[in-house]
Amino acid sequence: AQSVTQLGSHVSVSEGALVLLRCNYSSSVPPYLFWYVQYPNQGLQLLLKYTTGATLVKGINGFEAEFKKSETSFHLTKPSAHMSDAAEYFCAVIRLGTGFQKLVFGTGTRLLVSP
Amino acid sequence: KAGVTQTPRYLIKTRGQQVTLSCSPISGHRSVSWYQQTPGQGLQFLFEYFSETQRNKGNFPGRFSGRQFSNSRSEMNVSTLELGDSALYLCASRLSQENYNEQFFGPGTRLTVL
After folding, report:
1. What are the tens digits of pLDDT across the range A23-73?
2. I need a surface site. Which of A14, B2, B73, B111 has the fewest CB within 10 A?
3. Is pLDDT of A95 > 90?
């Protein structure tokens, strides 16, 4: 079964520092992988996705992630954190079936950004 | 184009009651999925509807049900509420059921069961 594991429920960085949020996946087939962000009292917003093609994926707000098959990882990075990046981040893999799809989420990582 | 809308945004119920939540997808989207988000269990898939038919269901008891109307709007119902049903319920819509296409999430309905 396809699943994702996020390492670290909380990550703290200083403004301007590198952001690294870790995600490892388990899948018997080539996975489609996603990172979503959730701000307080809001729904989920797609940051970026990997389906096929280039393994380095660029998303919104300066985030990017690299699909590494050899490491079964899809870590999210941003070179310089901004206060507005403080939110909860979810890694997800998609299960596709005949006529349906469902997202399987990791447990989430809360990013704290200090001035 | 308007995004996914969910009503109500907040709801307080007591144990044993039932509740109905509503989701209006993005115009033109025909598939609607529901997810439950709790601190303990995280984000979990409830069900997906397309063309008024349930296409897939998550591992939830029969107290959780849903339906979709001909205009693609969807409702989910929870009967005999339990304290553990307190959660943020998220709805997501996508264009069609063919292959992969992106799901867009609404702001959610926060249900509190007392």
Report:
1. 999 987 778 999 999 998 889 999 999 988 888 999 999 999 999 999 999
2. B2
3. no
- Count CB pairs under 8 A between chains A and B: 55
Question: How many residues belong to chain A?
Answer: 115
Answer yes or no: is pLDDT of A91 > 90.
yes
Query: Which of A77-81, A102-106, B60-64, B94-98 shows the lowest per-residue confidence on average (mean pLDDT)?
Result: B94-98
Given a contact cutoff of 8 angstroms between Cβ atoms, the answer to whether A105 and A4 are in contact is yes
CA separation for the pair A35, A45 (Å, rounded): 9
pLDDT-derived band of residue B44, with 50, 70 and 90 as boundaries?
Answer: very high
Choose, out of B33, B56, B94, the residue to mutate when testing the contact with A (most A CBs < 10 Å).
B56
Interface of B with A in 44-103 (CB under 8 A): 44-45, 48, 50, 55-56, 58, 90, 92, 94, 97, 99-100, 102-103
First to last CA, chain B: 37
> Counting beta carbons within 10 angstroms of the beta carbon of residue A45, is it exposed (0 to 12), middle (13 to 18) or buried (19 or more)?
middle
Quote the distance between the C-alpha of residue A56 and its chain's center.
Answer: 13
Which of B45, B51, B57 has the highest number of chain A CBs within 10 A, making it the mutation to test binding with A? Answer: B45
Instruction: Read off the tokens for A52.
Output: 């096929």
